[in-house]
């Protein structure tokens, strides 16, 4: 019946994920006194009796976000929690509670869900968050996980996406591109397995990047570290899509430009060697790969001395006036416009 | 790969929805100081700087929870919000914020999602809650909506499921069974439509029960009314499954028994006439039907004078000592054990 009522149709893929959210929610206004920040950052910010509460939610869907042929359910449970906590940390907040809802088809026996919840349990323990609710229901196909995470922060500690200023340094934690290359390795092994199910793959030479894909960690340690170092970033976002997409979010919301230096992007040797093996350009992977769950932040130059000796942080560029645009400065010192070619949920599907 | 590792399998349907949640979450402990109440009530209760925050989440899945052949998307958006707010009100709290995540297949054009969000918008406006976040992603099949709702309450106002005491009155708001019978009418019309797509159904004689199914309301008015009347229920739950299931939740958590009087259960005349037309026993529908989103509460007998003149409330039974059991007292004054035969998500599916 749906299909017949309106001859004018717009395909969802035309808008992209972020365009779609913006479009659908443009008329929604914030009315509650307790709503400090609604849609448009890593998490919403709420104020209850002057305690700032951070709220974020994510959906993970089988065969869109994960493939159970190589993703163990324990890891999946762990990762489902981590990707949400990462959004809380990206607000410079401490994660405190989660809810987990799952929809499953009867294809899954109880033991499969026990594995999933063991992963969720391990993540709750590791990150010291409480599971406080959820919903369990049947699905007609496959497995779906919806996690909501809450966190708290003092109001003057919360870091939004919109505070970057010209001359701020663009700083990345850890290294990137690993999760994406890990996925490539797993996808290749899956194809091999289809041809020869008795083949026992040796993934030891890919251990780091496969773990980055299957069991990523959220950078809670960085939030603690920033507190110790007395650094409050001017803006921050977690790297769930590629850094290119994340930098553009910061630039758009902060109304600034940026220069990102190709030769500064931190890559693990395993990412470089696997990119060579797959004959893919490692910079393309680094800026567009996604799922690394590192933190990308901008800090005032005054704070540079506090972070420069710390191996957790790499300065990868700096913020400019908006009119200067957003550029990747290549190794050949050519400035090319930065584009978000990151993972786009709505283009990926059939 | 999943299927081969463990020869010992337990079908999910063996546990039922509530058994499954209990089983999967039994080892999870509450560690955060701010977690007052975790899993096991209509919503979690959190305490941030002495403001009690209520948190609840629900998943709605196409062809499990709704059928788009008769559920207009606007109504679906409205209902998706309402079912979550109902859980907040069931804690005697005020709903303040929601997040909405959707997964959609490309079968849906943008205009369909605009309709869905128009319903969400209308509900936000009607109940004065803010949409503050969400996630939008693709699904391989159909439409899925995950809503999380937050509310606030003073800590001494929150009503749990576990406070019912012997001799308390069992009180229901509004009337029940309508949503279920509305569904029966819609399902019948769908079958007629399949045979004769040109048939224009006249649903005017079923207007009330169809609206109960397609556009239910959450009883925010009751929360305001209880405050005016200065009544704090000893326990409360919303009627999303049948009242039989809800009463048993209260009895289990409060460690009490109950007597429910068949002749006191409030039914709309349209429910009675439609039950006659479908040749179904109206009491069976009333106690097992579900989706009415009324509030079921227990109140101290001392509070009875405050509610007795109010048409919103019906006393349908009373609480007993646990050892006396849980019974339905029929019109023939026979006591039969109360069983939860309500909607069970995990038995319904193929």
From TrEMBL, chains A, B:
Residue ranges of every copy of the PurM-like N-terminal domain listed in the record: 40-153
Catalyzed chemical reaction(s): thiamine phosphate + ATP = thiamine diphosphate + ADP
Residues given in the record as substrate binding sites: 65, 291, 343
Binding site for Mg(2+) 1: 57-58, 135
Gene3D superfamilies assigned: PurM-like C-terminal domain, PurM-like, N-terminal domain
Residues involved in ATP binding: 117, 134-135, 161, 240
Pathway: Cofactor biosynthesis; thiamine diphosphate biosynthesis; thiamine diphosphate from thiamine phosphate: step 1/1
EC assignment: 2.7.4.16
Binding residues annotated for Mg(2+) 5, in chain numbering: 241
Residue sites binding Mg(2+) 3 per the record: 42, 87, 238
Annotated positions binding Mg(2+) 2: 58, 87
CDD domains: ThiL
Signal peptide: none
Family of this protein: Belongs to the thiamine-monophosphate kinase family.
Miscellaneous section: Reaction mechanism of ThiL seems to utilize a direct, inline transfer of the gamma-phosphate of ATP to TMP rather than a phosphorylated enzyme intermediate.
NCBIfam families for the chain: thiL
Designated name of the protein: Thiamine-monophosphate kinase
Gene behind the chain: thiL
